[in-house]
Amino acid sequence: MLISIWNGTPEYLNAGIPQFKATLNPFLSQVSDGTSVIIIPGGGYQKKAWDHEGIQIAEWLNQNGIHAFVLDYRIAPYSGNAILSDAQRAIRWVRYHASEYSLNPERIGILGFSAGGHLAGCTATMFDFGKDGDSINQVSCRPDFAVLGYPVISMDTSITHRETQRIFTGSEAPALEQREQASVDCRVTSDTPPLFIWHTAQDKAVSPEHSVRLFQACLKHHVPVELHIFPEGPHGLGIPRDMPHVAQWANLCIHWIRQIKRPV
Questions:
Q1: What CATH class does 3-259 carry?
Q2: Which of 20, 165, 174, 185 is 20 to 30 A from 153 (CA-CA)?
Q3: Is the Cα dihedral 90, 46, 12, 171 positive or negative?
Q4: Which of 75, 84, 81, 105 is nearest to 93 (CA)?
Q5: Mean pLDDT on 29-54
Q6: Mean pLDDT of 191-204
Q7: Sign of the dihedral defined by the CA atoms of residues 212, 214, 220, 225, in that order
Q8: pTM of structure
Q9: Any idea what DSSP says for residue 192?
Q10: How much is the pLDDT for 160?
Q11: pLDDT at 262
Q12: Residue 184 pLDDT level (bands cut at 50, 70, 90)
């Protein structure tokens, strides 16, 4: 059953664009310690890779005792503020309803791939601990941890994914300030939650330098971070069953989730 996360009108609704209300598709594990993860499939903010970056990921998390919620969020023709607000609202919604689903409100993570990894990264670095609005908005939208697979991180024109940049910033040629505001590595602070990042060295669509830049930013700000760069494999793999070496990221990630602690 799909869950609408907005009561009434979503934030940043554009009257000139067809209305879209973000939803969560819950996948609840039979046995869990209360940890939950919101999944953001990628697709360059133009589409969503529902199967291998959404449903399959939820099923994998469930098999490992973790509740999952797959997010259907706004994409083009919407841009940054609207897209980000859907991800932030998803975290607020899950945290607000934690007791109803037997979730731990301090063990809510976010996981995204490619452009979904950019959105997950933005959510992990651009958050508040509650704001004006309905009772859900008054809940923190800070994830307790974030998992990013082959993510778009930087809007630096030398390495960025152009379509992701164009849609998220709403500009064909965003100014330096806009690019920095939308670059996850530029937004890392000591309050950023722990991050797990993975990429492949052969990724031609999104350079592994994106993940390296985020890793370096985390080190600079003393944020707990784990990075894996596998030597082979193209972009957009999800959990590649035919590439067992790269598929190791999944087991590594489960071990990481189980041992992470919220920074003091």
A1: alpha beta
A2: 20
A3: positive
A4: 105
A5: 94
A6: 97
A7: negative
A8: 0.95
A9: P
A10: 84
A11: 47
A12: very high
28 SS3 class: coil
Sheet strands side by side (includes 36-40) = 3-4, 23-27, 67-72, 36-40, 108-113, 145-149, 195-200, 225-230
pLDDT at 11: 92
At 263 the pLDDT is 41
Tracing tokens 């609408």 back to the chain, one arrives at 4
Pairing between strand 23-27 and 3-4? antiparallel
Residues 6 or more apart whose Cβ sits within 8 Å of residue 116: 39, 40, 41, 42, 43, 48, 53, 151
The stretches of 97-208 forming alpha helices (DSSP H) are 115-125, 162-169, 176-181
120-156 pLDDT, tens per residue? Answer: 999 999 999 999 989 999 999 999 999 999 999 999 9
Look at residue 261 in the predicted model and tell me its pLDDT.
Answer: 67
How far apart CA 145 and CA 130 sit, in angstroms, is 18
| Angle at 78 (CA atoms; ends 73, 84), nearest 5 degrees | 50
Hey, where are the domains in the chain?
3-259
Chain centroid to CA 180 = 18
Q: What is the mean pLDDT of the segment spanning 62-84?
A: 96
Cα separation, 6 vs 70, whole angstroms: 15
Residue 77 preceded by cis peptide, ω within 30: yes
What's phi and psi for 10, nearest 5 deg?
-65, 155
Q: What is the dihedral of CA 104, 90, 142, 175, to 10 degrees?
A: 160
The encoded tokens of residue 244 equal 């067992």
Q: What does the pLDDT average to over 108-125?
A: 98
Give every CB contact of residue 204 below 8 A, 6+ residues apart in sequence.
234, 235
Q: Would you say residue 158 has pLDDT above 90?
A: no
